[in-house]
Design goal:
single chain, 173 residues, mainly alpha, Ferritin, 0% strand, Ferritin-like, DUF4142, DUF4142 domain-containing protein
Length: 173
């Protein structure tokens, strides 16, 4: 069982032992958000490290380094936030993330940069959707404030990823 499943089971056990159903429902949405946000951070860190290893240009390596550094900082914040809310979160990448890593690891040369940059655009679009939903759905002021703050960073990352993708798409294979 991967760490996402372990965290999910821990959260279910914690919530079902709580007698206040309204709080359980709110906590469940917050727990799902923090778990998914954590999965996303872990995956971007993992793929960023891979880009630094396999990237065939300084730009690919630099983008990977930026993703690793900035998402490591976000991961530290999520861990603190989740701990303050008694929410369990994953500690390692999910099986889906491992599959994405393995698929990307098979790419070489310019194809690696193209695939990595496309993946970063897609993942940041997904992250923005997740964070916007969380901001709308949560009633927890700390989670809402954190998600709002991170949304601006994610939008910046998306713009950089799109520029990065455009450059990579114009390279010859």
């Amino acid at each position: 069982m991967d760490s996402t499943e372990v965290a999910k089971q821990e959260n279910i056990q914690r919530m079902t032992s709580n007698e206040n159903t309204a709080i359980v429902i709110d906590n469940e949405n917050d727990a799902k958000f923090l778990m998914k946000a954590t999965e996303m951070q872990l995956e971007k860190i993992s793929l960023g490290k891979l880009a630094q290893q396999k990237g065939n240009s300084a730009e690919v390596k630099a983008f990977g380094k930026m993703m690793e550094d900035e998402h490591n900082a976000s991961l530290t914040e999520i861990r603190t936030l989740a701990q303050s809310k008694s929410i369990s979160i994953p500690t390692t990448v999910s099986e889906d993330s491992k599959d994405h890593y393995d698929d990307l690891n098979e790419e070489t040369d310019n194809d690696f940069g193209k695939s990595y940059s496309k993946m970063m655009v897609d993942q940041h679009e997904d992250a923005i959707d997740l964070y916007e939903d969380a901001i709308e759905d949560t009633e927890d002021p700390k989670i809402k404030a954190w998600a709002t703050k991170k949304l601006a960073t994610l939008r910046t990352h998306l713009e950089r990823a799109k520029q990065f993708k455009d450059k990579n798409d114009n390279l010859n294979s």
